[in-house]
Amino acid sequence: MIEPLLLTATRVSTFDGKRPLTGASGFFFERESRLFLVTSRHVVIDQPSRHFPNRIEIDLHTDAKNLTRSIGLSVLLYLDGKSVWRQGNDAGGEIDVAVIELDRAALPESVVLRCFTPAHLQRSLQEVQVGTSLLIVGFPLGFHDALHHLPVVRQAVIASSFGLRFQGLGYFLTDARTHRGTSGAPVVMHSPSADAQLPWKLLGVHSARMDMGSRDLQLDETLGLNCAWYADILLTLTT
Fold it and tell me: I need a surface site. Which of 8, 110, 161, 226 has the fewest CB within 10 A?
């Protein structure tokens, strides 16, 4: 038996043509039979670092009884010169989340995956308390179960008031040990009431580590804090 949570996430690889660029994380979201891949917006484009991939590849399982079987699905990021992903803004500015609708006809008939849905989103921010235990499901530095093509999870806790957007921006903070490659990972809270088959609330999308520019690199450790963008943006990006 495989935990359904591990089948919600997929490894994302970015390319410029055939040239590999970076690795990241992503997950599946379904709304009214439409299937979406969710990841960080900076995975598909990042002006400051001059990161401009034109396609991505995601890993898909193709046999429910043998998870060693998988394929890489190539997804173009531009069609007719226009980007295929959706991204959003709020009162605080740009949101580091990107959503790409996947063509179900392009998937193998035997594809094995699990999807979050609007029912997995947390409707009331006040119900989630600071210090709540979370999991971040992803591919840190690309590390994963390479035989079964499954992600790993890192433990985290909510490190800022979930009911108040941190410094007025569209994210909250988590306290967790994370690495490059985790960008785009789902941030989840166990909740048996959410779904008997997938008992997790989708709270956020992991973006990046935070640090202090004034930190003494020799005397001070990193903060160990991270940005997680509120997952309710998915209701806007998947309409």
Answer: 110
